[in-house]
Design goal:
The protein is an alpha/beta fold. The protein has 13 helices and eight strands. It starts with a helix and ends in an 18-residue tail after the last strand. Bound molecules: zinc ion.
Length: about 350
């Protein structure tokens, strides 16, 4: 019995002194080995039992310990993988789910999505270009979107302005488009502005990080450009006619040209007729407006290479696109030395 009490004593001492489990097992095995060897040598009677008895007891203890160790390893393997850190502590579960395809993009990720959420964007014109711009920016989670348009929905708009429905004819475009954006993504704040943007709107524009212009007259584009230059806010401009469209970024505050650097004077009458006169193929504003939304997301998140100093031209009739370089004119009448007010 002495051998048994010896083992109990070692186990109790190990527990009292907080011996690590591995050391305790080693001590017990050592005591057991001494007893077994003593029995085999014929001097173990004082420990009690027999060589065979201690061997069986030791074997059983070994099996039990081996079983427990194996079970522990299995449990560790079956334990759930550590949860990856959330993209951002400020993002809700619904946002993590909604923007999951952005969050896995290396160039956007959590920080980029947070920048989109914090962004304030002004969209001018809820027409053919404005429709995809508004839908994609709202879907992408651009936090605050102001949408300016003085027009109402007409039947001839519906061939390409896919943000509207037939039963919305006669409704204000800004309100109707805002409703569609809220239905798509209730997490973005949309402010409809049922009026035109003029050259006097620099203060309004200064409350935004970026302006997207989808209007279709030179006078409107010129006014928006002047206000953006005055407010030092970058402007993504898209234009379409018939089968061809173009998109670029005007950003003279960061070295790029403004609209007036490229087009200092209004085109001669009849040279650049609006879509109502020249016609436009339905999906073309979908292509060019989507490019505008894409460039807006890049501009807001800092992803990739934007269109500052470049203009992308898309020819839908021949299925071609090309890029041309653009440059700021030092004597530009709006952003350069030719302007009356220094910027
Ligand atoms: Zn300029």
């Amino acid at each position: 019995m002495l051998g048994f009490w010896l083992l109990v004593g070692v186990a109790a001492a190990g527990w009292v002194f907080g011996l690590p489990r591995r050391w305790l097992v080693a001590a017990l095995v050592a005591v057991w080995a001494v007893i077994e060897l003593a029995h085999l040598a014929g001097v173990g009677t004082a420990f009690g039992g027999s060589a065979r008895g201690w061997l069986v007891a030791g074997g059983l203890a070994g099996v039990v310990m081996g079983y427990r160790a194996g079970l522990g390893r299995l449990r560790a393997r079956a334990a759930p993988a550590p949860v990856p850190p959330a993209a951002d502590p400020g993002m809700s579960d619904a946002e993590l789910d909604r923007y999951a395809r952005h969050l896995v993009l290396r160039e956007i990720g959590g920080p980029g999505q947070m920048r989109l959420r914090e962004a304030r964007v002004l969209v001018v014109g809820a027409g053919g270009l404005g429709a995809p711009v508004c839908l994609y920016l709202a879907a992408a989670g651009v936090g605050r979107i102001t949408l300016a348009d003085a027009d109402t929905v007409g039947l001839s708009n519906l061939q390409r302005q896919v943000i509207f429905r037939s039963d919305q004819r006669g409704e204000g475009k800004a309100q109707a488009a805002a409703g569609a954006m809220r239905a798509l993504n209730p997490q973005v704040a949309v402010t409809p502005l049922p009026r035109r943007i003029t050259g006097a709107d620099a203060d309004l524009i200064a409350q935004h990080d970026l302006v997207l212009d989808g209007t279709d007259s030179f006078a409107a584009r010129d006014a928006i450009n002047r206000a953006c230059v005055a407010a030092r806010v970058p402007l993504i401009a898209g234009a379409i006619a018939q089968w061809e469209g173009q998109v670029t970024l005007y950003d003279p505050a960061h070295g790029g040209p403004c609209l007036a650097c490229l087009f200092p004077t209004a085109p001669a009458p009849g040279l650049a007729p609006p879509c109502a006169e020249a016609g436009v193929i339905g999906p073309l504003p979908g292509v060019v407006g989507s490019l505008m939304a894409l460039e807006a997301i890049k501009q807001l998140t800092g992803a990739g290479q934007g269109l500052r100093g470049r203009m992308l031209i898309f020819d839908g009739l021949h299925g071609e696109s090309r890029m041309i370089g653009t440059a700021r004119r030092p004597d530009c009448p709006v952003c350069g030395s030719g302007s009356r007010v220094s910027n």
